[in-house]
Amino acid sequence: MKTLKGMFANFKRYSFLMKQLISRDFKVKYKRSVLGVLWSILQPILMMTVMAIVFSQMFKFKVDGTNYLVYLMTGIIMFNYFSEASNMAMSSVVTNFTLINKVYIPKYIFPISKCLFVGINFLLTLIPWFGIIILSYFGLGEYTCHINIWYLVLPYVFICLFMFTLGIGLITACISVFLRDMFYIYGIILTIWNYLTPVFYSIEILPANLQTIFKFNPLYIYLTGVRTIVLSGECPELLQILSMFLYGFITLIIGLFVFKKKQDKFIYYV
C-alpha cells in the first residue's frame, strides 16, 4: 500500500513530465500524417471491416443471438489496447535511458505514460464503436444492440483493464531491461494470447473442458463483461465484476513490487 501511495504522490509531483511524455508520443506517432488523430478512429473501423469480411463471410463465423459486428469490434479495440499499451510499456524504460541517466525520475513514470497515451487513443476508438452500436438500430448487422443503464459500468471495466495492462507492462518493462530477448518473446506471447482470447469467435464453440480453462483468461473476463452489457443489455454477474477488479489490482500490485525491487539495478543493464 505504501508503494501505491508513493506512486500517486509522484504521479501528482511529476504530472507535468507525464503530460510532456504523452504529448511527445502523440507527435511522434502522427508526425507527417495527413489524417493525424483521425487514424485512431479509422483504424478500428478498417480493421473490423476486414476481419468481418474474413471471419463472417469467408469462414462463416457468427455468434448466435448477437450482432457479430459489435461483438467483433468490442474484441478488437479492447485486445488492441492491451496489446499496444503493454508492448509500449515494456520498451519504455530502455528507450528512455538517456533521460533516466541525466536526472532522477521515478522510472515507473514511463510505463504509466505509455499506458495513458494508448488509453487516450482507446477512448477515441470508442467513438466509432458507439457509432456501430447506434447503427445496429438502423439495420447494421442481424441483431440490435441494447443501450441501457448498465453502460455506467463500462468505465469500471475499462479502469480494471487499465490496471491489469499497467501491471503486465511494469513486469515486462522490468524483464526487458535484463533480458532484451523479451522484446521478441512478448510478441509471440501476444500472438498466442490473441488466439486464446475470444476476439473473433465465441467460446461456446470449444469443448467444455477448454471453456473452463479459457474462462481464467483475464482478457476473456473483461471482454465478456463489456459484451454482456452491450449485446445482452444486462449487468455482468457480481463474481465477474469482482474478478475484474482482483485481476487488475493484484497484477498491478505485483508489477509495482517487481519493478520497485529491481529498478535500482536498471542503470547497470540499460
Q: How would you describe this structure to a colleague?
A:
With 270 residues, the protein is mainly alpha-helical. The protein has one domain (2-268). 72% of the residues lie in helices and 0% in strands. The longest helix has 28 residues, at 68-95. The protein is globular. The model has no long low-confidence stretch (mean pLDDT 84).
* Class per helix and strand makeup: mainly alpha
Query: What kind of sheet is the major sheet?
Result: none
- Unreliable spans are none
* Cα-to-Cα separation, first versus last residue: 28 Å
What is the mean pLDDT? 84
The total count of strands amounts to 0
Radius of gyration, in Å, reads 19 Å
**SSE pattern:** HHHHHHHHHHH
Contiguous helical run count: 11
Question: What portion of residues is helical?
Answer: over 70%
Q: Any idea what the shape is?
A: globular
Q: Beta-strand percentage?
A: under 5%
Domain count: the total is: 1
Write the layout of secondary structure elements.
Blueprint: H1 2-13, H2 15-29, H3 39-58, H4 68-95, H5 97-102, H6 109-135, H7 154-178, H8 182-196, H9 208-214, H10 218-232, H11 238-262
Helix pairs in contact: 2-6, 3-4, 3-6, 4-6, 4-7, 4-8, 4-10, 6-7, 7-10, 7-11, 10-11
